[in-house]
Amino acid sequence: MIIHLKETADQAKVQAIVEDLYAIIVTTGEGSIVVTPSSVKALPEALEEYADKYFVFDSDIQLSSVDYIEGREVDLGPGTVGRGLLNTAVITGPCSVESREQIEQAAILVKELGLSILRAGSFKPRTSPYTFQGLAGEGLELLDEMRSKYGVQIITEARDATHIDDVIATADIVQVGAKAMYDHGILRRCGKTSKPVLIKRGFGTTLQEFVQAAEFVLAGGNPNVILCERGIRTFETKTRFTLDLCGAAWLKENTNLPVILDPSHAIGFAYGVPDLARACMAMGVEGLLIEVHPDPSSAKSDAAQQLNHQEFRTLLNSLKDIAKALNRKIF
Ligand code: PEP
Ligand code: MN
After folding, report:
1. φ/ψ (deg, to 5) at 209
2. Distance between CA 280 and CA 295 in Å, rounded?
3. Confidence class of residue 20 from pLDDT cuts 50, 70 and 90?
4. Residue 243 and residue 229: Cα distance in Å, rounded?
5. Does the C-beta of 265 come closer than 6 Å to ligand 1?
6. Which whole number is the average pLDDT over 301-329?
7. Predicted pLDDT at 30
8. Which terminus of the chain has fewer Cβ atoms in its 10 Å neighbourhood, N or C?
9. Which of 230, 241, 292 most suits a substitution to test ligand 1, by most atoms within 8 Å of the C-beta?
């Protein structure tokens, strides 16, 4: 249950009343609200004098539910995304920051194409310890340099809670990866910033668990959360993962959060990325996340799935055609 408190409500008294319920008090732009477990279906009597209005839910998808707010808008700087806004952020860049030359070429590509958001990881959650793990702090500095030099927005990921403060300080959008989305140190810290947070769905994560991860950030006080579907693990082994477009449709229907799709990590092979990206665009989502590399075959991570810059230019042209047909604006 979400309870909107009256402006005059004494927060200390409310806190004492809801303590045993495992409820959380969240301060929003419009005042304070109490979020109890969804199993609470009736307004506790002791709260009646403090409550303005309340909302009942059938699961712990509450702050992110369409039954609470129809659509949340998230300001990404160069554009705002949200249900009904008809804006799609096309986010591109390499899997990892590898060198100044490499990330600079990506920043130039973003500018050249009139896009705004550059992606690249610096703390890489690799499957094997015997592989490139990212440039860590040095990579963040290079991303910061690209923002200053080219005026691009930066999205980069936190692998664990040890460097989440550094990522929040550098990024314009904080990415919580598929493997990191269960890290409560990261989720709780993301609740304490107002920067947009993009949460990627774990490949073995149900939609319920995924959205509940977002609830941790929302309940922490940060309303700027974006969901990213990036493929789940199924019985199929021919592709890296299976892009769950049905899941994306469910998220659009049932949650108030912007939805972004990542065809690159889903299929894992560059040959299928353009077709999938067009299918994603046709779903009218709030964003796409597509990996590119100036020379994919030499990439230090996710080499097989990255498009080269020319392939991406061609893809973007066809995405613009689809956007036009849907009356959507790409930024
Ligand atoms: C990434 O975006 O580079 C990444 C590591 O993705 P995911 O967390 O979806 O595997
Ligand atoms: Mn990657």
Report:
1. -65, -40
2. 25
3. confident
4. 7
5. yes
6. 98
7. 85
8. C
9. 230
